[in-house]
Amino acid sequence: MTLKLSPDEQGMLDGSGGSARQKAMELLVRYALALGADGFVDTDNVTVIPGSIPDVSIVRRHVPSLDPDEVASRFMLDSDETVILDRVKAFTTTNATWRDQAYPELQMGGEDHCHLLRIMADYCRRVGMIHLATCTPYQVGNIPVRGQHLAWTESSAIAYANSVIGARTNIEGLHSAFASAITGKTPLWGMHLEENRLGKVVVDVQVGMEDVREWCLLGYHVAGQVGLDIPVYTNIDRLPDLTRLMALCAAGISSGSIVMHHIVGVTPEAPTVEAAGGQRKGVRKLRFGEEERREAYGKLNRSRKDDVDIVALGCPHMTLEGLQAVAGMLEGRRISPNTKLYITTNSMIRAMARIQGLESVIERGGGLILVDSCCLVLDAEPGSVFATNSAKYGHYAPGATGLANTWFGTTGECIEAALSGRWRGALT
User: Fold this and answer.
1) Roughly how many angstroms between the first and final C-alpha of the chain, as a whole number?
2) Does 2 reside within a domain?
3) In Å, what is the CA distance from 138 to each residue of 45, 124, 145?
4) How far apart are alpha carbons 355 and 349 in whole angstroms?
5) Same structural domain for residues 163 and 98?
6) H helices within 227-262, ranges in order?
7) CA distance 210 to 212
8) Are residues 234 and 148 in the same domain?
9) If 0-12 CB within 10 Å is exposed, 13-18 middle and 19+ buried, where does residue 195 land?
10) Is 154 among the domain residues?
11) 143: helix, coil or strand?
């Protein structure tokens, strides 16, 4: 297969834009050919995830000096040759998993890995990236518009960009996103193409969708049924807010691969079922009723122990509204001495929480807000029992952290578990 390259793309591939852009274009060409794309599309909005480079012990084996240009060349450009990047071409922000530098002992890799990530954060800023360090960039400064072509990392953010905003992005990884940041190009395939964004499965939602938990359960169940197809959600009885939309996106991308969905009357490309593609021939039909709701809930609640060691909230990064709700639940109360309460968000949301006095309320109650990090890199004792309000964290935590004993429920149930040290949540 032959790629169609524009003059500026061919120029970068030939080296006219410097060695970094040449290496990046070489990587993107290999990527595009593997995907079956026949060309590229311009992108001026990228999120990269350098915080997910391998553990520092692996990096040191190949780059003993931890020189950031060499680390970026090897682990982000897949290049044996060290290249010097002057500045990224696209507007680029960073993803989470950087670790909260104030609490290295609470996160995987400890101080050594935190040191490496400090070096890489400085590198990202030096080459022109905005170091947002969040899995929810749309909350704090990277807000694309409908129809804009992106090259984003982080699964739930990709689903949010496609489904809620109406922007266009595929699931990009560390290497492809970094190359797109350098070149301003991404392969033209998948969600960048109009015909691939139509719904393939119509979901009849037959339960009330009042609580955020229900949005988690909806996305979690449907993702396991639709494979790579795009669902069209119908008959939802309320207008979702930011938190509910985030929960649906995160759940749908964790138990399956829903990179885009339609909510009729809510999402930009679904003013009607017909516009979303739900009336075409061959479209499947699914229901989400009480039986499916309880099945999803059962899959997310795996623990046989009522004692709770860790309550983890903020996957994806918690909103300011979420922190306000938690502070209200903790006001004048103190969590159990046997339980830890960790909430992850980004530094901008935490700054607002500090101004509003929310962080001090949470800390007086015994909780801790971690920034620029992720619940999935928490360093916990094997056998610990944790509770969460996130279907995504509940799904991934057993494999990522070894915490097989999981409870999933509402934010209120999680805070009550932190206060009492015991899980009392239930699906009514």
Assistant:
1) 55
2) no
3) 12, 19, 10
4) 10
5) yes
6) 242-254
7) 7
8) no
9) exposed
10) yes
11) coil
pLDDT bracket for residue 35 (50, 70, 90): very high
Angle between helices 391-401 and 212-226 (to 10 degrees): 60
**How confident is the model at residue 403, as a pLDDT?**
60
Tell me which residue range forms the domain holding 264. Answer: 198-299
pLDDT computed for residue 401 by the predictor = 63
Which pair of tokens denotes residue 41? 């599309």
Task: Please give the radius of gyration of the chain, using alpha carbons only, rounded to the nearest integer.
Answer: 22
Q: Please, are residues 138 and 68 in contact by the beta-carbon 8 Å criterion? A: no
What is the reported pLDDT for 402?
62
Q: Are residues 149 and 177 in the same domain?
A: yes
Choose among 372, 384, 370, 399: nearest CA to 254: 399
Q: Per residue in 73-130, pLDDT tens?
A: 999 999 999 999 999 999 999 999 899 999 999 999 999 999 999 999 999 999 999 9
426 within some domain? no
pLDDT digits (tens, 9 = 90+) for 256-271: 999 999 999 999 999 9
Q: What is the pLDDT of residue 283?
A: 87
User: Rounded to two decimals, what is the model's pTM?
Assistant: 0.95
What's the pLDDT tens digit per position in 310-364? 999 999 999 999 999 999 999 999 999 999 999 999 999 999 999 999 999 999 9
Task: Answer yes or no: do 306 and 264 share one domain.
Answer: no
Strand partners, 202: 232, 285
Is 345:318 a contact under the CB 8 Å cutoff?
Answer: yes
pLDDT of residue 272: 94
Shortest CA distance to 184 belongs to which of 5, 19, 9, 355? 9
Could you tell me if 178 and 232 lie in one domain?
no
Query: Domain end: 179, 194, 209, which one?
Result: 194
Specify whether 23 is located in the same domain as 149. Answer: yes
Q: CB neighbours (10 Å) of residue 321?
A: 12
Residue that is last in its domain, among 173, 194, 215: 194
Quick one: 90 and 140 in the same domain?
yes
Tokens coding 276: 């979303």
Q: Tokens 């795009």 label which residue?
A: 230
**pLDDT tens, position by position, 358-387:** 999 999 999 999 999 999 999 988 888 999
Whether residue 321 is found in the same domain as residue 287: no
Integer Cα distance of 52 and 130 in angstroms:
17
Would you list the DSSP string of 166-221? --B-----HHHHHHHHHHSEEES-GGGSGGGGS--EEEEE-S---SHHHHHHHHHH
